[in-house]
Structures are given as structure tokens and as C-alpha cells.
Amino acid sequence: MARTNPATGTKHAADRRAKSAAYGDGVLHPASSGSVVVVGAGMVAHRFVESLTSRDADGRWSVTVLGDEARGPYDRVGLTGYFSGKTPDDLALDRAVLDHERVRVETDARVTRIDRENRTVTTAGGSTHSYDRLVLATGSYAARLALDGFDHRGCFVYRTLDDVAGMRDWVAKRTAQLGRPLRGAVVGGGLLGLEAAGALQAEGVSPFVLQSNERLMSAQLDLGGAKALQRLIEARGIEVRTSSVTTRVDADVSGAVCGIELRDGTWEAVDIVVFTVGVRPRDELARTAELAVDARGGVVIDGGCDTSDPSILAIGEVASFDGQCIGLVAPGYAMAEVAATRLLGGEASFPGFDTSAKLKLSGVEVASFGDAFAETPNALDVTYADPVSGVYKKLVLSDDAQTLLGGILVGDASAYTSLRPLVGRALGGDPAAYLMPSDLAPAPQGDLPADAIVCSCNGVTAGTVRDAVTEHNCADAAEVKACTKAGAACGSCFTLVKKLVATELAASGKEVSNGLCEHFSFTRAQLFDAVRVSGLTTFTSIVQRFGTGRGCDICKPALASILASLYSGHVLDGELATMQDTNDHVMANIQRDGSYSVVPRIPGGEVTPEGLVVIGEVARDFGLYTKITGGQRIDLFGARLDQLPDIWKRLVDAGFESGHAYGKSLRTVKSCVGSTWCRYGVQDSVGMAVQLELRYRGLRSPHKIKFGVSGCARECAEARGKDVGVIATEAGWNMYVGGNGGFTPRHAVLFAEGLDDDGLLRAIDRFLMFYIRTADRLQRTAPWMEDYEGGLEALQGVVFDDTLGIAEDLDRAMASHIDNYEDEWAATLADPEKLKRFESFVNAPEVADPSLAYVAERGQARPATAEERTSGAVFIGGTTLAVRS
User: Fold this and answer.
1) pLDDT, tens digit, for every residue of 483-506?
2) Which residue of 31, 620, 623, 639 is most buried, as measured by CB atoms within 10 A?
3) 835 contacts 827 by C-beta, under 8 angstroms
């Protein structure tokens, strides 16, 4: 028997898509039928139309959707993705919903009047539409501060696609006009404000955030959590000022923003201002139609989403329930389900607002859920704070410390997906244990109860997810997502959904899919073979043949690695450039302050005095911090994006090349001095290390690879802690494999003994190529070996006895890699189109990024702390000494 969602009282999405939910079975009987007019074409309206049409088996209702924007419904929750390359088409919601035969959609159709007596609505264009039931889903608009200058050119709100497109166009235009990078102010330090600040920073603007009260995200975080978040935000180079109220925006003679004044009398020069001070319900239609409207705004509704007019319903941000309007999508979706169910004759009631939230800002993890402020009588809270690492965690518990009521997670929100569904339930263990670092914290004990909410955006329970597997034959998480909508909005719950699906499939005796992601049902190893055999060389052709959709941040980098392994193409060639992780995208490692580090290859740690001089001169001339790494290389920190090509050219001209410190590839081959100098050495470990590094440089793999070569059994190069370790003996080379550092260190195990030079190279060739072909995404060599059927002995058979008959193929693949190797830095310097990616600012490539600030320490420059940025002398952009007053 199908379950009912206890949070909304509605049938779950899997049921409404099944034939068994057709309305001739006595479940739902529409009390009336005819025409439904939906005013508004946002996410909540889209959900309402989908819910109604997918369950209206008898075709009782026809639907007209009237939207005032020029485009159809799009993902407003994911709006920030526009600044990381997503297009309006990428953000568009499922068009098939509005292409339904009984649905008609009009864009640019702003409704100006509701005639309740005649049951019609009129648009600004003069068209009139009759309704039997009217659904108001007009949403909200960005609140506007009552201050002078709010409407100057360069002032924006952060609400629609047009808003963010306007911001991007203004930044490009104004940067070109002024010939320098812009400075921006974000007024409002809530969820949207921080996302807007991140968006400005992504466009090359130096932003600061002004929050009127004492803490960021004040609706979600307590003071301790807000302080931790502020440190994380400032570490990204975004200045934060709390208890700061904006009183005026000034413009220059052209009418463009030039500065803002604060209540304390200070004045700040700015070139763009973004207001994110909250939203207000768009209830003007309801007011003119004399519907009941709450004193604080919003159309008053009851638990069934009915307004004061029985023929009119209201859902989403325009609706006021118990005196509240909440600007989150999850309660809007719940209202949409309730409204659709009621129109179909079912019983459903809106349960109230779930204000759980998660910040979508790259590199900053924040989540808040349940009774985060411990407002429940006699509630207890357990808190863990680590200011050094920027972590703050709090769980709110019942007075007996058994039941989870809510929580706040800052700096490490990995527990959000597992803790959020347990609100109102027993944790089943020591609460303090759940606040430990993520690699030490226990998983919640036992199965989630059937009525535990897994996806708060769409109100999907654990029972609904399980039913999708057992009753509706969903075979993987992607099918469950399509069937139930779990994970289809913000996506933060999708990891938990995958776990639930895998557990249910295994319990049902069904095959568990190990697909790479929702876009590919293949494992990484299967996809590698598919690409190799098919000969396809682009992501588009691969996803068209073997996958679905447009890809994601899981499959795109994985496929980029596969293509690089097979074809040795440059990471910035064609489509490959759009598939890379951040570090690969710029061929350097991004640091906490937004600058980059450069690591030239130093094979075996061997470098000439002339080479050292060049590295020193580069570090001096570009103001870089230098450090010897654990892999016997020199790391140069603090480079700006626009400086990278100039740094590379100096190094390449001196004979250096990319050390691939940014890639999932060979990092280093560490060595001792061996028999060249050491009286204990029995083999030339430096010579072998250099040979290995030059042989395997640039070899892309599922994860980073590290080597070590020791010249004798004293093991000074720590070879047995590496993915491949080589130790010299009188009889030849001993080869060790599967050593890893990290959270779970592994000691390498002996793979072969007494190998000569050629035998060692052949064994390593085959071991690495087989690992690259068969390992999972981001799987190090140690867990790969443990997972491989037959373990070490089976791998030895593949490498030395050719038990799979693929040895020659593996040898050819490695030979192809060696023959086609090209230094990525040198190739980029020779390509003007690739070099354009490293210009920080339009028409001003020589301008230092003002968001980078440094102080002197032990004779070098290190990133300035937030306090140091505002209190004294700092280096700006790593090159110029400046004093901030």
C-alpha cells in the first residue's frame, strides 16, 4: 500500500506518477472541474502545474499560466550558478511540464486586475482569462530601502535572471570605462547577500558586505556560528562589516554609483551596490481585489491554501500562513502539493514552515535546521568550536539530551544530510560525537524512519524513497530523483538519497548501480572502456551516446581525466576547458585568499644552481612566498591569475615545466641521494627517480599519484608511504605499491623483488595503466587494491603473467602517453586564445587584484588576516606596499 507523506498529507510523487493512482480507484475525486488560472510562472507555479496535471487522470482541469517575465520558469535557487557558467537554458525548469496538452502558458503577461464577481483576470496587454479556480503564485519582490540614491545606475537587487545578467553587464562595462577593477558593496548579510558577494568576486569585483545587525545570516545562525562564518568569508577576501547601516548612495556626474554613506558618518567609494535586504510578498493584486491580506503583507491562507475567496488559492512566498511569509522554496512546494491535492478532491493541509537552509557559496559550508536557536522550553545545546580551522557546530536537544531538535553547522556541513531528517527523533548515541570532525563523527544509528523528511525542498520522506525502489522499480538514485523529486531542487540531500537507494536495492536482492553519477549509469572503469573503444573525443558526443543530460561537477572532471589519459590533449582544448576543476582550469593551485601557487617540476628533487637562481629571481620579482615541499620541490605562493603566464614564461625559458601539483596525476618522485653520494647507497636512486618522473609526468589518473625511490633499505625517501615505492637492493629494485597518506594512511606492500631497470619500468607501466583504467573516481591506489577482486595476487597476475591478456595493450597505452607528452605551461604560452583566460580584468590586465593583501613574516609575504587588512600596512596584490587608513 502506498504511503502518505505525513508532512503534507499528500500522496508522494511516485504514487502520483503510477497508474494505480488514477482517479477512478476511489482515492481522489475532483469536487469540481473546469479552468484553473495560475498567476505567476516561478518555481512554485511550475510545481503546482506538474502536481495537478500528473495526477488529473480524467482531465478535469485545464490550466493557464500567466507569467510577467519574458521567459518560462527557471531555478531561482540556483541563480548564483549563472556566475559560474550556467546559461538561462541550464537554469530552466523541465519544459515538458508546461508543454502538457491541457496547459497553456503566456509570458510577458502581467496580470493587473482580478474580477472576483465574474471570475476573470486581465493582463497589462488587455487580454482577459476566465477561471473556475484561481491560484496566486506571484511570489515576492526584492525589498527596497528607503534611502536616497537607491535607483542610481549601478544599483541592483539580486532576485531574477535579469538582475544577475544586468550585474554582469554593468561590471564588464564599468571596468572598461574606468580602466581598473571595481569595488562593490552588498547591503545585507543574509543567504542572498553572501551569494551575491561571491558572485561579484567571481566577476573580478572586490566586494564587502554590510550587515545592519551584529551577525551574518541572522535568521539562521546564532552569534557563535555567525562569527565563525564571518572568519570564513573574510578568508576568501570578502570584507564583512556588521552593525553597519547604509543611509545614502551617491552618484558621479554621469549618474553612476560612486559611493555610499553609512549611519556612523563614514563614506566608502564603490562602483556597484547590490541590495539583498529581504523580500516582500507581491500581494498588490490581492489588495486591489480586496482579499484578506496580513498586516505585515501576504495573502492570508488557511491550511488548505484557500484565501478569503473560496475560488482563489494562494501558494508560495505571496501566501501568509499563521502571520508569516517565508522566502524559501521548500514551503512553497509543500503549498503547491496541498493546493493540487485539494483541487483534485483530496484532503491535505499545509504543516507550517520548514526554515532549514544551506549556503551555496564555493568553499564555505553553512547549514541551519530545526530549532537552531533553542527556543523550545528547557532545550539543551551541545557546541563544538575550532576557530583555527573555522568550524562551529551546535546541536539543540530536548531536556533529556535524547531528541534532536535542530542544529547549526559552519565550516563543516557534511553531517547536514544525515542529521536534518532526524529532527524530532532520538540520535541514538552520544550527541557530542556527532560534532567531531567529519572523518571521526559516527553515522546516525539505524534506518531512517519512513516518515523522516529526506528532501526538505520537496517534502520527500525516507519511506517515499524506499517505495520508489520497491513499489515503482526505480533502479538507481537518478530514477528515484525523477520519480519523487528528492534532490531535484538544491541538491544537498542527494548523497543521502543515493545511500537510501543503495541500501534498499541491496535489501531487495536487486543489483545496486555503481553509476558515476545521475548522467552516466557506467562506473568510471566502464566509461573509460566505452570511450576507448568508441574513439569519442568530446564530452558532448560521449554524453549523447552513453549518458543523459548536460553533465555535472562529478562526471565532467572524471571524463576530462579519462580523455586526457587516452588522448593526451591539453586541458584547455575545446570542450575540455569547461570540464576541469578549478585548479586544472588555470594550471595552478588556488589558495585560501584567492591567489595561486606555482610548482615547477624538479625531477627527483635534483636542481642546478642556475635553476635555483631563476626560481629565486621569479619569487623575488613577483613577490611570492617560497617553501620547500614534502616532495622535494619548491612551491611559489601568492601569484595573481594575470601573473601566471609571466611566471610560467620565466620558468619555461629556464628549462622548467609544470609540476602538475594541481592535477589528478603524478605529483612527485621523491628520492634520497643514493649511491651517487651516500656511502650506504647500493643503486643510483636519483637517476631512477629522474627517469620515473620524466616517464610518467602529466599522466592523468583517478587520483594523485606519488612515488618514492630509496637507494638502500634505510629508506630515507620514505618509499613505502607512496603509491609506488622503489627500494634498491644488491639484487636489483624492490617494488612496493598502495602506500597512501591522508586520513587513512596505508603502508605500501611488496609487489616484486630484484627487478632490473627495464623490468621495473615495465611493471610500473602496467600497474599504473591498469589502475587508471579500472579505479573508481577519486580512488587512491590503496583502496583500489583492496577492492580489486583477488587482491594483490590477482594484480600481480595481470602485470607479470598477463592473466587478462591485456599486457601489450597496457604497454602501448603507456608508450603513447610518453610519446605524446607536452608541457601544459609551454603549450599555453604558445596559444593566444588560451592566454586570454588569464586576464583578471577587462582592458586592465596590469591592475593588481585589490582583494589580495599580505603582511611580512619571517622575511616573506603571507596572506593578511581580516584584522590586519583594516589596521595597518599591507601588501596589496602581492607587489605594492600600501597603507590603509
Assistant:
1) 887 776 666 666 677 778 878 877
2) 639
3) no
- Across the strands, what pairs with 111? 123
Q: Is the pLDDT of residue 848 over 50?
A: yes
Strand-by-strand arrangement of the 634-639 sheet: 589-590, 596-598, 634-639, 625-628
Whole-angstrom Cα distance, residue 574 to residue 811?
Answer: 28
Contact 661, 688 (CB under 8 A): no
Report the candidate in 276, 278, 279 with the shortest Cα–Cα distance to residue 167.
276
Please list, in sequence order, all residues whose beta carbon lies within 8 angstroms of the beta carbon of residue 458, skipping any fewer than 6 positions away.
Answer: 13, 330, 333, 484, 485, 486, 488, 489
Q: Of the candidates 345, 457, 371, 472, which has an alpha carbon nearest to the alpha carbon of residue 32? A: 345
C-alpha cell at 99: 508543454
The full DSSP string for 374-387 is: --STT-EEEEEEET
Rounded Cα distance between 656 and 650, Å, is: 9
> Distance between CA 356 and CA 364 in Å, rounded?
17
Please tell me the number of Cα atoms within 13 Å of 357 on its side-chain side: 19
> Could you write out the three-class secondary structure of 672-700?
CCHHHCCCCCCCCHHHHHHHHHHHHCCCE
Specify the long-range contacts of residues 586-591, CB closer than 8 Å, at least 24 apart: 586/641, 586/644, 586/662, 586/837, 586/838, 587/644, 587/658, 587/662, 587/824, 587/825, 587/828, 588/639, 588/644, 588/662, 589/661, 589/662, 591/637, 591/638, 591/863
What does the alpha-carbon distance between residue 77 and residue 492 come to, in Å, rounded to a whole number? 12
Contact (Cβ atoms closer than 8 angstroms) between residue 568 and residue 821: yes
Instruction: Quote the cell numbers at residue 266.
Output: 563614514
User: Region 821-834: what's the mean pLDDT?
Assistant: 89
- Going by their DSSP bridges, the two strands 239-241 and 853-857 should be labelled as unpaired
3 state SS of 270: coil
CA–CA distance, 563 with 549 (Å, rounded to integer): 19
Q: Is 608 left (phi over 0), alpha (psi -120 to 50) or beta?
A: beta
Q: Is pLDDT above 50 for 30?
A: no
**What is the edge-to-edge ordering of all strands in the sheet holding 61-66?**
103-106, 61-66, 34-39, 133-136, 312-314
Q: What is the pLDDT of residues 82-124, one digit of tens each?
A: 776 778 888 888 888 888 889 999 999 999 999 999 999 999 9
Question: How far is 347 from 344, CA to CA, in rounded Å?
Answer: 9
Q: How far apart are CA 351 and CA 343, in angstroms?
A: 18
Question: How far apart, in Å, are the Cα atoms of 564 and each of 571, 576, 579, 811?
Answer: 7, 9, 11, 17
Q: What is the pTM of this model?
A: 0.55
**What is the residue type of 810?**
L
Percent share of the chain, pLDDT over 90? 43
User: Do 105 and 41 contact (CB within 8 A), yes or no?
Assistant: yes
